[in-house]
């Protein structure tokens, strides 16, 4: 065969291969844009020479379907290139994929980059174990519960849940599974689902229905339903989720209507009623939120109209997903989030409403006895019996779980550091004292070499923490732990030294002096004259200003008279100054008087001293010792 013909055949073969790959990539992109992630992944896997953008899309297909092992595997291929510029959202997804396969150390490093702060999950868990109010004992419901079941809720004496168990040829493109419908069942004493029934076809249609919540009188049912048509939103065709209401008439569900705050432009889902049935909570990605899905509520009036949706605020909501709200009888809010720090995927959090500030407290992760590295969500609890249900894909697919819980003692970690206010150098050996609300000292520690300290304290209490170091002004900070979700409080103390705070205080040769006018005594006398009293009054005011300050009074003489005489004279003068200060209200424990006689001359002029030189040696010095 001629060489030219061989080259033509090879060229044609390569061209066909290139066209085939290009066609597959184009089709995969189209499937991806329509959120048909499973089928898109199959085509992306077939592309032999995938580039980084295709690998990331493949990883996303697995991530959005909870297949974290395959998601992490593909994200890592792109992250191995240190010079590759990667959008920040991929750091978030890669970290959660790693949490999902229990690769905590690498996940923390990736999440630290994403959040621009150090994430240490083991330390977070350690602190969390002290703060959580309950320990949970969760079990998979093993009978009647099949993979794909989730969103269990109370339904009179029964339970409702969503399931894809209907055998239908129509499949949901996202996961290539049947569409969800709502079922009701009995939950037996043995912990199984029995007498499972599908709700009627006017509720269960040919699209998704899920998350049914029943009013306390059993006459109103709220549920989520996916729109049966797609709307173009930012160039992508999306079928939004809406909330519906059904009314029971003659024991049948009728008058099914879309709630007025639902929309073709955004999703509204996961309804939850408060105990009085006058507030409806839900999750939505409507504009004006914190990002992705937020928790909202509307007020329900007596004539069954609804207020404008109100966002629960930045303590609860993040730029990521907050979904599946539930309000318990004790008015605690439970919800799922992957934006708050957790163990990976969606975690279940709780938040209590602060009536004084009309805001929700900082959410608290429920801990490792119920949350995992994968998605844990749709939590409901009977606060009277401390039992309830949740959904989780911890086993690889969505399933229903039942749990019981028991109360435990809680504590909050208080930690911080101590630095010099001006130089910002750490101050080791500073004493940190913790005071209760009655100003009683309850604990005290010395900071370590890194200037750090920590205490474990109780929630819902008031405290004060004080830093004290010799030659520094004590600094105290009052705080409370009413914000129930905070498992860590960080109080950085900055202490100011006396010589930085006061112009008359200075440091010299390792001592901190108070610079005052010299005190003059009559010859051979030690009583306090008006001039000396005026000088000492300045010291007294300074010591009143700083109640922890301790001062050493040192009296010195010149060389006239004998050594013994001068020593005794200086002691008397130092004691006289001290007694004057005590008489003005300064406690004796804060003072020390020392007579030095002629042992510490400033001018050693021997026997030929001038009167000026004698006066320099004849002085009283004030040294701050604490």
Protein traits:
single chain; five-stranded mixed sheet; 11 helices; Immunoglobulin-like; Serine Threonine Protein Phosphatase 5, Tetratricopeptide repeat; Neuraminidase; 626 residues; alpha+beta; 40 strands
Describe this entry's structure for a reader.
There is one protein chain. The chain is an alpha+beta fold. The chain has four domains: 3-117, Serine Threonine Protein Phosphatase 5, Tetratricopeptide repeat; 163-366, 6 Propeller (Neuraminidase), CATH 2.120.10; 412-497, Sandwich (Immunoglobulin-like), CATH 2.60.40.10; 502-624, 2-Layer Sandwich (60s Ribosomal Protein L30, Chain: A), CATH 3.30.1330.60. The strands form eleven sheets. Strands 27, 30, 32, 34 and 35 form a five-stranded mixed sheet that branches. Strands 36-37-40-38-39 form a five-stranded mixed sheet. A four-stranded antiparallel sheet has the order 1-26-25-24, with no helix packed on it. Helix 1 (3-33) runs antiparallel to helix 2. The longest helix has 31 residues, at 3-33. The protein is elongated, with a radius of gyration of 37 Å.
């Amino acid at each position: 065969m001629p060489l030219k013909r061989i080259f033509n055949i090879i060229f044609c073969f390569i061209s066909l291969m290139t066209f085939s790959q290009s066609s597959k990539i184009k089709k995969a992109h189209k499937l991806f844009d329509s959120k048909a992630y499973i089928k898109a992944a199959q085509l992306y896997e077939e592309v032999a020479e995938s580039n980084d953008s295709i690998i990331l899309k493949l990883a996303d297909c697995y991530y959005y379907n909870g297949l974290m092992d395959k998601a992490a595997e593909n994200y890592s291929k792109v992250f191995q290139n240190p010079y590759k510029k990667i959008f920040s959202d991929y750091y978030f997804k890669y970290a959660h994929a790693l949490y999902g396969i229990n690769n905590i150390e690498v996940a923390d490093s990736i999440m630290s980059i994403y959040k621009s702060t150090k994430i240490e999950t083991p330390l977070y868990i350690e602190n969390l174990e002290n703060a959580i109010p309950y320990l949970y004992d969760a079990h998979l419901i093993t009978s009647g519960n099949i993979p794909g079941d989730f969103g269990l809720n109370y339904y009179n004496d029964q339970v409702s849940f969503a399931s894809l168990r209907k055998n239908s040829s129509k499949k949901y493109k996202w996961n290539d599974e049947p569409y969800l419908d709502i079922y009701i069942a009995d939950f037996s004493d043995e912990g199984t689902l029995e007498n499972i029934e599908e709700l009627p076809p006017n509720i269960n249609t040919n699209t998704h229905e899920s998350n049914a919540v029943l009013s306390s009188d059993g006459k109103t049912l709220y549920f989520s339903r996916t729109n049966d048509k797609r709307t173009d939103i930012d160039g992508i065709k999306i079928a939004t989720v809406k909330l519906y209401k059904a009314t029971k008439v003659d024991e049948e569900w009728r008058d099914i209507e879309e709630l007025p705050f639902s929309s073709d432009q955004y999703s509204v889902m996961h309804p939850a009623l408060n105990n009085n049935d006058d507030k409806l909570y839900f999750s939505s990605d409507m504009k004006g939120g914190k990002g992705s899905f937020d928790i909202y509520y509307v007020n329900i009036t007596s004539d069954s109209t609804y207020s404008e949706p109100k966002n629960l605020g930045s303590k609860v909501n993040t730029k990521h997903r907050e979904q599946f709200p539930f309000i318990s009888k004790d008015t605690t809010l439970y919800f799922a989030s992957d934006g708050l720090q957790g163990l990976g995927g969606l975690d279940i959090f709780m938040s209590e409403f602060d009536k004084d500030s009309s805001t929700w407290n900082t959410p608290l992760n429920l801990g490792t006895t119920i949350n995992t590295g994968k998605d844990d969500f749709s939590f409901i609890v009977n606060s009277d019996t401390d039992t309830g249900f949740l959904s989780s894909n911890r086993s690889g697919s969505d399933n229903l779980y039942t749990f019981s819980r028991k109360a435990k003692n809680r504590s909050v970690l208080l930690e911080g550091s101590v630095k010099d206010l001006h130089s910002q150098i750490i101050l080791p050996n500073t004493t940190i004292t913790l005071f209760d609300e009655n100003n009683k000292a309850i604990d005290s520690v010395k900071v370590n070499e890194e200037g750090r300290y920590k205490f474990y304290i109780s929630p819902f209490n008031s405290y004060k923490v004080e830093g004290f170091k010799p030659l520094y002004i004590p600094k105290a900070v009052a705080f409370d732990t009413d914000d129930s979700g905070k498992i860590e409080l960080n109080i950085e103390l900055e202490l100011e030294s006396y010589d930085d705070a006061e112009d008359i205080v200075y440091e010299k040769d390792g001592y901190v002096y108070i610079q005052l006018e010299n005190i003059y005594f009559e010859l051979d006398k030690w009583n306090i004259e008006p001039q000396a009293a005026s000088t000492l009054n300045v010291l007294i005011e300074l010591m009143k200003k700083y109640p922890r300050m301790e001062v050493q009074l040192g009296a010195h003489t010149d060389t006239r008279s004998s050594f013994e005489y001068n020593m005794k004279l200086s002691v008397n003068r130092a004691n006289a100054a001290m007694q004057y200060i005590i008489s003005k209200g300064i406690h004796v424990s804060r003072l020390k008087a020392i007579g030095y006689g002629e042992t510490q001359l400033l001018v050693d002029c021997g026997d030929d001293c001038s009167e000026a030189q004698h006066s320099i040696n004849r002085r009283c010095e004030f040294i701050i010792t604490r």
